[in-house]
C-alpha cells in the first residue's frame, strides 16, 4: 500500500497522508477548490470515501486516488454534514457508490441545499459580484495573513463557479439516526452521530481498532470553527462524548491530521468566545470591539471570527427573549 501511495501521481487539490494501513487523509490544499478535507478507507473488498470536496475536478482526483490506492471500487461515500465543501463532489461517485448521511443531513440537502444550487444555477451573478468585491478589497488589504486567506477563498470560489454548470446535486441514498456499521473484509467502521453542533446534524467515522476518528467539521486543526449554522453549546457536549472514545488520531474537517489535543483546543475556542460575548453583553459593550484572542491569532479561517461572535450574540439574545416571555404573566 505504501508503494502505491509513493507512485500515485498526486493531485493539486489535496495531499495524501497515510494515517494507518489502508486509511488515508486527503488534506485540502488551500485555494484549489477542495476546501475541506476528505478520507479514503480500504475495507478489504471495497472502498469507503469520507466527504467529497467542493468541485467536481477535486472529487474526480479523490475517486482516482481511492481506486488506485485500494485497488477496489468506491462502494460507499459518507457525508459528515451538508455543507458544500463536503458534499459537492457526490455526483462523481454515483451510481457505483451508495452515499450515506444522517437522516437530518439528507433532509437539509433535499430542501435548502437543492434549492440553493438551483438558485445559483439560475442566477450566478450575485456570486460573481461578491468575488469581484473581494478582489477589489484585496488591493487595499495590508494584513498579509488575511490577504492570503482571502486570496485562497476567492480562488476556490472561482473554481466552484467553473464547476457550477456541470453540478448535479446528488443526495445520500442511505441514512441513519444514531449509528451504523460497515463491515469489510479487513476492517469495520462505525458511523456515529451525537446530534448537531457545527451544523444541525453532524456525523463522524470511528475506527476503533486503529483508534482513528474522521470528524468532519466538528474538529478543525488550527482553524477557527465555523459557527454559521452551529449550536455551540451542543457542539461542546458532542466533543465531550467523543473524548470518552478511544481516539489517538483525528482527521479534521480542515487542517492537518491531529490528535485529541486539537479537539480540546476547539472546545477551548468555543468556551472562550462564548465568554467574550457574554462579558460584552453583561457590560453593554459592542461585540465589534472584540479582537481575536492571542491564542487564535495564527489560526486560519480568521474571516469567520466576527460571524462567530455574531452567531453567539444572536443566540444569547434569543435565550434572553425566551426567558422574558416565560416570565410574562398569562392574560
TrEMBL record:
One Pfam entry name: Lactamase_B
Keyword terms: Hydrolase
Annotated SUPFAM superfamilies: Metallo-hydrolase/oxidoreductase (SSF56281)
SMART domains: Lactamase_B (SM00849)
Domain Metallo-beta-lactamase: 35-254
GO MF annotation list: hydrolase activity
UniProt cross-references to InterPro entries, sorted A to Z: Metallo-B-lactamas (IPR001279), NDM-1-like (IPR050855), RibonucZ/Hydroxyglut_hydro (IPR036866)
Protein name: MBL fold metallo-hydrolase
Species annotation: Peribacillus deserti
Lineage: Bacteria, Bacillati, Bacillota, Bacilli, Bacillales
Amino acid at each position: 500500500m505504501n508503494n502505491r501511495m509513493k507512485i500515485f501521481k498526486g493531485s493539486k487539490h489535496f495531499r495524501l497522508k497515510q494515517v494507518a494501513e489502508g486509511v488515508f487523509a486527503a488534506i485540502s490544499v488551500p485555494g484549489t477548490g477542495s476546501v475541506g478535507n476528505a478520507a479514503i478507507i480500504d475495507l478489504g473488498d471495497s472502498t469507503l470515501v469520507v466527504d467529497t470536496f467542493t468541485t467536481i475536478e477535486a472529487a474526480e482526483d479523490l475517486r482516482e486516488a481511492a481506486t488506485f490506492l485500494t485497488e477496489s471500487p468506491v462502494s460507499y461515500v459518507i457525508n459528515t454534514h451538508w455543507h458544500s465543501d463536503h458534499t459537492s463532489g457526490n455526483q462523481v461517485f454515483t451510481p457505483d457508490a451508495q452515499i450515506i448521511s444522517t437522516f437530518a443531513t439528507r433532509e437539509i440537502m433535499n430542501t435548502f441545499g437543492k434549492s440553493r444550487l438551483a438558485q445559483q444555477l439560475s442566477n450566478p451573478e450575485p456570486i460573481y459580484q461578491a468575488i469581484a468585491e473581494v478582489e477589489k478589497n484585496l488591493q487595499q488589504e495590508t494584513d498579509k495573513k488575511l490577504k492570503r486567506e482571502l486570496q485562497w477563498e476567492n480562488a476556490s470560489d472561482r473554481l466552484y463557479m467553473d464547476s457550477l454548470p456541470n453540478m448535479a446535486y446528488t443526495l445520500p441514498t442511505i441514512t441513519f439516526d444514531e449509528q451504523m456499521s460497515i463491515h469489510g473484509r479487513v476492517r469495520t467502521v462505525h458511523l456515529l452521530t451525537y446530534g448537531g453542533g457545527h451544523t444541525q446534524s453532524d456525523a463522524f467515522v470511528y475506527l476503533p481498532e486503529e483508534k482513528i476518528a474522521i470528524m468532519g467539521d466538528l474538529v478543525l486543526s488550527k482553524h477557527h470553527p465555523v459557527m454559521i449554522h452551529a449550536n455551540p453549546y451542543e457542539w461542546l457536549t458532542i466533543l465531550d462524548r467523543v473524548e470518552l472514545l478511544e481516539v489517538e488520531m483525528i482527521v479534521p474537517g480542515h487542517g492537518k491530521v491531529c490528535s485529541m489535543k486539537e479537539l480540546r483546543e476547539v472546545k477551548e475556542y468555543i468556551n472562550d468566545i462564548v465568554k467574550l460575548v457574554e462579558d460584552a453583553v453583561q457590560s453593554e459593550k459592542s461585540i465589534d470591539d472584540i479582537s481575536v484572542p492571542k491564542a487564535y491569532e495564527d489560526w486560519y479561517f480568521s474571516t469567520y471570527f466576527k460571524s462567530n461572535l455574531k452567531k453567539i450574540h444572536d443566540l444569547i439574545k434569543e435565550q434572553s427573549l425566551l426567558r422574558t416571555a416565560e416570565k410574562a404573566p398569562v392574560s
